[in-house]
Amino acid sequence: MKIINTKDADFKAQFEQILARAKTDIKEVSSIVTSIIDDIVENKNQAIKEHIAKFDKWDVKSDEQLQIDPADMKKAYDKLDHKLRSALHMAYDRIKSYHEKQLPKSWVDFEKNGTILGQKVTPVDRAGLYIPGGKAAYPSSLLMNAIPAIVAGVEEIVVCTPTPNNEVNELLLAACHLCGITKAFKVGGASAVAAMAYGTETIPKVDVITGPGNIFVATAKKLVFGEVHIDMIAGPSEIGILSDGSANPHYLAIDLLSQAEHDEMASSIMITTCDEIANYTSKEVENYLETLSRREIAKKSIDERGAIIIAQNMDEAIDLMNEIAPEHLEVMTHNPFELLPKIKHAGAIFLGQNTPEPIGDYIAGPNHTLPTGSTAKFYSPLNVENFLKKSSIINFSKEAIDELGEACALLADTEGLTAHAESVRVRLRNEH
Question: Which residues are noted in the entry as substrate-binding (predicted)?
Fold first, then answer.
């Protein structure tokens, strides 16, 4: 695994390459995605069937075949090994408990002059969840996207997932049953995003689309934003690790590979203050690679997008990591909580030797749908509020408008909005 040092003469150029890790060129696929969206808008189900035949390699004979039968979800759930079912329920309960703590409340405030101001929080009517199913199926992503919507109180949840060769992952079906999903469809990629954004004869139009996907899914979400709300535009998975001389190189190496095995485009970056840890970890990465079932994917990711950076001190290491703003950040130091106040930008922060990133993927409780490609500088993890909207509440008494009305009308005058000003002053004059 490549090791670089902040003292290297060309370190700045090498670090710029790391920062550009997720600069996938949306422009390159925008025209393709635009044509897919236009086709769905114009031809609806017929376009979906053609896209499925082209990309997922099976022929849809009828509109009914697009939908996954809830009976198949229950059958898959009933067939689960009892240990796997228990693990699925444990994950569900922990994710639900965590997200229930995020629920904002409606509120009202009363002023002395009789003004009532407040905020009303309501869920969207219908949420669309995109669940990947190409190179790998991720039932955990179904839990992470469906549960916040359930907690928010969304009445109708629509799921879309690609089904290559018309095969649906059994654990995904079981997870759908556990989450009470009744509307799930066998469509993926940009086609699924377009179908949920605009609606077809079979797939209903939604209000918000969430969930991870490849460059085509990310581009489609960007293009339909405004027609619907979206959670974020996420790219390939990534991990950052801060370590000092106390860290265990075996842990560091396998944790770096835990993201590399996702995707050739995934990035794994460690910044350490210890030369010895850097070298030992690099060797351990090579050793572990030989044991992985997805070795070729992980190796390409490590070779092309992995790096170990040796920093001169922990403050420098943290500054560099804040620039990277990783999706997942592990802090493997002697006292990780001591560093927490200095960490500004990360999707999820994993503190200590016993908190590997996969704990967050499955069982801890916080959401694993996270901002990537440095967007943690301004995006948050998927959460309950992605499925909620807020309405302002305003009620003025006669005393309140008499007290504040002229100031309001004056501001309207200065903007040249005569009707605005007069709509206030007619009340001040008490005209009937």
Answer: 237, 259, 262, 328, 361, 415, 420
- At 261, list the tokens: 């095995």
Of 364, 381, 413, the position where a domain reaches its end is: 364
Residue ranges of the binding site: 237, 259, 262, 328, 361, 415, 420
Point out which residues pair with 267 in neighbouring strands: 238
Question: What is the CATH classification number for the domain harbouring 118?
Answer: 3.40.50.1980
Which residue from 210, 214, 205 is spatially nearest to 230, judged by alpha carbons? 210
DSSP three-state, residue 159: strand
* Residues recognised as catalytic: 327-328
Same domain, 178 and 277: no
Name the binding residues for Zn(2+).
Answer: 259, 262, 361, 420
> How many CB atoms within 10 Å of residue 116?
14
Measured CA to CA, the distance from residue 271 to residue 101 in angstroms comes to 33
Is the model's pTM score more than 0.90? yes
| Host H or E run for residue 117 | strand 116-123
As a whole number of angstroms, the distance between CA 397 and CA 287 comes to 74
* pLDDT tens for each residue of the chain, 432 residues long: 999 999 999 999 999 988 887 665 677 889 999 999 999 999 999 999 999 999 999 999 999 999 999 999 999 999 999 999 999 999 999 999 999 999 999 999 999 999 999 999 999 999 999 999 855 668 899 999 999 999 999 999 999 999 999 999 999 999 999 999 999 999 999 999 999 999 999 999 999 999 998 889 999 999 999 999 999 988 889 999 999 999 999 999 999 999 999 889 899 999 999 999 999 999 999 999 999 999 999 999 999 999 999 999 999 999 999 999 999 999 999 999 999 999 999 999 999 999 999 999 999 999 999 999 999 999 999 999 999 999 999 999 999 999 999 999 999 999 999 999 999 999 999 876
Give, in order, the Cα–Cα distances in Å from 96 to each of 71, 106, 167: 24, 20, 29
Structural domain for 286, as ranges: 3-23+236-364
Instruction: Give the residue ranges of the annotated binding site for substrate.
Output: 237, 259, 262, 328, 361, 415, 420
